[in-house]
């Protein structure tokens, strides 16, 4: 996937998150957590190892105004749960949490969870580490499935701790 293809897809394609929620096999992702309101899944085009997305199942677009305070706190609890599981599975020195998208493309509200690996030089960290233009990581199907399973187990272990 190149940047031009990605941009075209993000701006003019169907909402991939709504298609995923609806169960469209063409938009399947490795889901690592699901509850009544949210999904968490592996990014198909990760810029960092094990990059994840957390989304509301309902098509919402504004990170602040489309959510009640309870809904905002609920999605942030889900983001934290999945981020902690990512920290259990993936080595790194920092976990980045951010929400991107716009009315122009990828408008469905989503949070990114990305672990910054140890040893990345400072000038390649932060925004540079997240730049799609720098390329995406390629996983084999077996590697992606294994990573998703390890993340699912870590999430469920953390859910079990809270019950």
Automatic annotation (TrEMBL):
Q: Does the keyword Chloroplast apply?
A: no
| Biological-process GO terms, alphabetical | nucleotide metabolic process
Q: Which residues form the HIT domain?
A: 16-127
UniProtKB keywords: Nucleotidyltransferase, Transferase
**Positions of the catalytic residues:** 112
Please identify the protein, giving its name as recorded: Histidine triad (HIT) family protein/ATP adenylyltransferase
A molecular function (GO) held by this record is: nucleotidyltransferase activity
PROSITE patterns for this protein: HIT_2
